[in-house]
Amino acid sequence: MTKEWFSTVEIAELLDVGDRRVRDRAKHENWQKQRRKGLGGGFEYHLNSLPLEARQKLAKQEAEQIAKSPSSLMRAGSAVAKLQMPAVSQTEKAKSIQQFINLPDKAQKRADAKMLIVNAKAKFCMPYLEVRKLVDGEKAFCKAYAQRSIALPDWVFSIISSVSIVTIRRWEKVLEKDGVSALAGKYKVERPCLLNDEPDLADFLKGLITAKPHLAGKAKQLKKLAEIYAIKTDMPWQIPSISSIRRWVNKWISQNQAAFTFTTNPKKFNDKYRTAVEQTYPWMAAPNDVWEFDSTPVDAMLKEGRHTIIAVIDCFTRRVKLLVSPTSSSEGICLLMRKTLLAWGVPNQGGLMRTDNGSDYVSQRTTSIYHLLDLEQSRANPYSGWEKPFIERFFKTLSHDLIELLPGYIGHNVNDREAIEARKEFAVRLKERNKKENEKADYDLRMTQPELQQLLDNWVDAYYHLRAHDGLKGKTPNEVYRAAQYQVRAVEHPEALDLLLNHVGEYTILKGFIKAGGLRYTAPEMLEHEWKGQRVRVFLDPTDVARAFIYPINNWETRIEAVDSRLLGQEISPAAYRQTKKEEAKALRSFRAEMKQLAKTFNIGEIHQTVIEHYAKQAKSLVEFPTQPIAHQNPSLMALTEAAEQLVKTNKPGYSDQQIEHLRQKRKAIEERKNTINQQHATLVRNEHEKARLLAAESLNRELTPKEDAFLKDYKKHNKLGAKRIDEIMGHKRRATN
């Protein structure tokens, strides 16, 4: 132990007795003592004179300190001296440490655990060794280790559950003889693989499993495909066994896990490996600096069908507003904007609106409203959820904390859906399968759209805004908002906001009227020549689709009110008008589908064939009286008739035997020529890799011709796997030159 002398107070704490009893016992047993230095005076007693129970407690405390030591390498370097083992040379010690560093993580962990146990045992048994009871100390240590009363990390016990005297002594001998790296154990050494000597075969397997990742776990099929390819391309590959291919593929994938995932599964790469150390919106300093918008389908069926949640989040405070809509449309986004602007106020000057890249977010209506409010819209790239991290993280929280509890929950993915379906009895599913579509009871449809909207609003206000967020350093959104002491830029007139959100676009007045949304608006002022040809902004009356307010571009002081006389006074809201148009379009589509079904039922597409068959059948029932034909005389036909009759009579071909043999030989020569050409072409394609390697090798001894150099460049451009091998061969030339 590092400390050898102890005061009466320290000994009393070890024995749980008073100072006086320690002094009396020391005097009675004649403990080795010396004068205590410093204030207070008195005596202090040597470690060898202390009772056995005191030395055991000191050993346990020392073992606990060993377990908390910082580095396994430091323990490895000092273990020899601490255990009083024979000294080893610096070279051997450095070699042992280097071997330890090169061990796999699992082996290092195993050696680390054994080293901790050996050191703890040495400290634990030191008091026993001094009284020549080492075996008793070793037994006590093994018993204490089995009871986990030795102060060692939990992972040590998980790796080594129990120890014995023989085992620990063997570890001590291994440590003394071979160093710390030998404590990892002599486990099976990695076998050499033929693929290490077949780079082309290895490249073939790499290309195969990256192009078809589902084959990565099918070593038998990989071996078969390699054999077929080798035979077809005349490659002299030595193809290893199935188990060797399996080990090589697993090792290669583990060494290139991130790159392999990036190539075969970009979504998984983004979720698991994509770098996420940069700070999003580092300039953000106050509420309403950045809003993120996004939409997601609700993983639950409502009575009206499946709906979509449109959401916006204030990134600084994590406050959220939600809107349940049948679909993610510009109409729904504008309604959410109205709801958010009235509650949170207008975003700050220079504020950023981060949106999706979908058609609903880049529509003319949505983008024009951002422009009219002097807001900067920033569109995320397609399939790049990490560019909207706050809203994406919120959707995950919403999905797992609330949506999964809803009636009619249909699952987040196919696996969830299959698990839900499996709960139903087979007879119930078979019965429902035979029902009409509108009578099916696939889900527990108990919520309506307004009910879900109210539930979401309550969940946000009563839970999410009062929940501590790790991203807010343990604060809630409401606490962050209050601490910011933010002054809201409120919208004073909601009616003006309603008009703004009903902006339908920009139009040009040509003939005293404009057409917007299928309606025709006009006003007396629009008949004047000053207005004709002007570009104007059009806003619909939120309560009457027949009325529109028109402003010239870049002039908000001039306004005219235009109407559509056909609908004026009926007070049809724009939303109702648009809904009516949608229903009309839906009815037309339904009519068209019904007509197509009728055409399919009566096979209208084949009606022409039916007509022809009908007339053909009628024609067969008619009997036509034959008439006597008149022979047609033609000089050509008359001349050839005689030759034809001769062929029929003799039953011989029109060529002599010599001519037929000549034609046969000519045909044979043509076939041989074709085979030669095909063989040459196949040889050219088959030896393309060999030709490239041959030219690369020849470049070491001579300068390649321009044609040969162009071939190599083209080969390397179109054969990425073989290009590396060519560069290695040609690298010898560069090194020799240098």
Question: What do these coordinates show?
Answer:
The structure is a single chain. This protein has 738 residues and is an alpha+beta fold. Among the domains are: 51-184, no CATH class; 194-272, no CATH class; 290-408 and 443-484, Ribonuclease H-like superfamily/Ribonuclease H (Nucleotidyltransferase, domain 5), CATH 3.30.420; 502-572, no CATH class; 687-737, no CATH class. Helix content is 53%, strand content 11%. It is built from 29 helices and 14 strands. The strands form 4 sheets. It has a 5-stranded mixed sheet with strand order 6-5-4-7-8, with helices on both faces. A 4-stranded antiparallel sheet has the order 9-12-13-14. A 3-stranded antiparallel sheet has the order 1-3-2. The model is unreliable at 70-88 and 436-444 (pLDDT under 50).
